[in-house]
Amino acid sequence: MQRQKVIIDCDPGIDDMLALMLAVQAPELEVVGITVVCGNVPVELGVENTFRCLERCHRLDIPVYQGATTPLTREFISAQDTHGMDGLGETYFPRTSEKTIEVQDAATYLATTFAQPTAISVIALGPLTNIAQALQKNPQLGEHMQRFVSMGGTYKSHGNCSPVAEYNYWCDPDAAAYVFQHLNQTIEMVGLDVTREIVLTPTLIEYCRRMNPEIGQFIQAITRFYVDFHWQQEHILGCVINDPLAVAYFIDPTICTGFESFTAVETTSISMGQTLVDRYDFWQKPANSKILTEVDTYSFFGKFLTVILHAQEELIQTDLKNLM
Ligand code: RIB
Ligand code: CA
């Protein structure tokens, strides 16, 4: 099987960490680079957490590029209230390697990588600041990539940063608006409509511990803070793991279904960061996005748990019948 080449842009972050664990170990993917953006945590911390992930997954071969320290124009507001001050649920795991960032910054790396048509895709798991800056450097960025998947936005589900806005697009609405306006590539938007269905429950966390004690204990440790946040905020028992769904959907697009639409992002006023999905074509503009609205949660967890727990797929699928 030919591995699909992909760059992951992320802001690790607890769910980014789980998404990276999936991406760098999935047999279908070749992660050719990781770019880090300010978001859940300041970008320097996101870089450190990326190194922590690559150390744990024995993938220190993957180059890491540091990106934007602030949004394009807005003041930077992190999500450390949700992910902990260290971005990993205040576990403060030590680093074990001497790995350092690449010399190129993230936007330059992205802009030069897509200077010509490539078979490389991009999965964006954080605010779109790096992507917007790369697009400003190289207007053909989108046309020269294979696919662009973004965890962000929401169609009908309520926001998680305001009544209408999702964090990645709320943190840097100008970047999101710019990318939706100028990328010239279908933005496969894995938004809260589908990610809210992906709840890592206490039962599934305990299952991870039983199936692979070392990895399961790590997952339990980094998600505890996130589970507490979800209970306090929305009385959800477990935690919504948004980013791994974007990776799993990239690997297997049948996991989610949706529709093509023109979408714009609000950049001002109290609805800043809102994705305005013109499903009924009021504005008569060509579709620039695919909005995912339905998800097969069973298929997602089958793929996700098989890869990150290094387990037999058939066993996971059998067990999930009793766990979900
Ligand atoms: O709104 C959820 C998104 O914002 C996720 O990508 C999470 O990691 C944060 O970046
Ligand atoms: Ca993220």
Residues in helices, as a percent range: 25-40%
First-last Cα distance? 30 Å
CATH topology: Inosine-uridine Nucleoside N-ribohydrolase, Chain A
Our estimate of the beta-strand percent is 15-25%
Q: Which molecules are bound in this entry? A: alpha-D-ribofuranose, calcium ion
Class by alpha and beta content: alpha/beta
Strand order of the largest sheet: 3-2-1-4-5-6-11-9-10
Enumerate how many helices there are, as a single number. Answer: 13
Determine the CATH superfamily: Ribonucleoside hydrolase-like
CATH class: Alpha Beta
- Based on DSSP secondary structure assignment, what is the total number of beta strands? 11
- The overall number of domains is 1
Keywords: Glycosidase, Hydrolase
Pfam family, one: IU_nuc_hydro
Domain Inosine/uridine-preferring nucleoside hydrolase: 6-301
InterPro entries: Inosine/uridine_hydrolase_dom (IPR001910), IUNH (IPR023186), Ribo_hydro-like (IPR036452)
